[in-house]
Amino acid sequence: MYKEKKDIISILDLDREAIREIFSTADAFKEIIQRDNKKVPALRGKTIINLFYEPSTRTKSSFEIAGKRLSADLINFSASTSAVKKGESILDTANNLEAMKTDIIIVRHNQSQSVRYLAERLTSCVINAGDGYNEHPTQALLDTFTLHEMVDTFEGKKVLIVGDIFHSRVAKSNIHCLKILGADVSVAGPPTLMPMYIEDLGVDVHYRIDEVLPSQDFVIMLRVQFERHSGFNFPNVREYASLYCLNRKRAAAMKKDAIIMHPGPVNRGIEIEPEVADGKNSVILGQVTNGVAVRMALLYLYSGFSSKAMKE
Ligand code: CP
Question: Is 274 left (phi over 0), alpha (psi -120 to 50) or beta?
Fold first, then answer.
């Protein structure tokens, strides 16, 4: 389905076949980036811009590494050191960058739907690197790619997403992606951090995690997004941690081979204990490694190449 799309804005623009093609392309790039020479000439001559209006460690760096490993020219744009500081709008900024003949513009912004707004007005391929509370589709693709490496099928697998669901674009993209792949998705967190529409997304909703953790195959712990909180979200951090932190006791009650994930950055001791984040069931750093392979696959496929061309 992605072949009909210019941009990556929402996971809902993809179907299972498209996600599987992204995974098979990422499998091939993952093999390439284990080599001493990690670089391929696939995107030589293409120009990519990382247009980030919000801070990022993982997404921005992994898109930069992915673009460079594909031999594209990649420029990092930082809003804080640009003419945005003089009042230039996001559309004027993007139009000016596109006037320099860009092929792909990767955008992170704190306003939901801002990336779609740009995609509808630009001719470059626009990739959503996180828009407000809305979606973070490339994070969901790297999370599910990480799980795809460990299981034969998503059908019937139980996934629990825990924490600050309301402010989490990662939760929304993962719910969509996991459901397209056939998983059985639940969410858990404080009622004050649960969006009103959550049941419309086809998930089971829990307010206590101890009753559901033992039956789960995969658990995605979310960062509490303090910077997006306003007013009363929960009484205090200690109470949040006592009810929702994935601590050693809770982890011990999970299935022996359950997989623990977190998109990062981690608030250690609030949503997950350090011993669990760094423990044997955690794949948190594996998610980051896979982020490069998945983003290479996306840059490659959305530049008009097919996974078939990779195998040839
Ligand atoms: N997971 C994620 O989006 O991390 P960054 O904010 O560091 O990009």
Answer: alpha
Q: Is the pLDDT of residue 310 over 90?
A: no
pLDDT band at 7 (very low <50, low <70, confident <90, very high): very high
How many residues are given for the chain? 312
Query: What residue's CA is closest to ligand 1, atom 1?
Result: 263
**pTM higher than 0.90 for the full model?**
yes
Query: Which domains, ranges and CATH numbers included, belong to the chain?
Result: 2-135+288-307 (3.40.50.1370), 138-283 (3.40.50.1370)
In this predicted model, what pLDDT tens digit does every residue of 221-273 receive, in sequence order? 999 988 888 766 777 889 999 999 999 999 999 999 999 999 999 999 999 99
Nearest-CA neighbor of 206 among 90, 215, 285? Answer: 215
Is any atom of ligand 1 closer than 6 Å to the C-beta of 195?
A: no
User: Which atom of ligand 1 is the closest one to the Cα of 59?
Assistant: 8
Rounded to an integer, what distance in angstroms lies between the CA atom of residue 64 and that of residue 106?
10
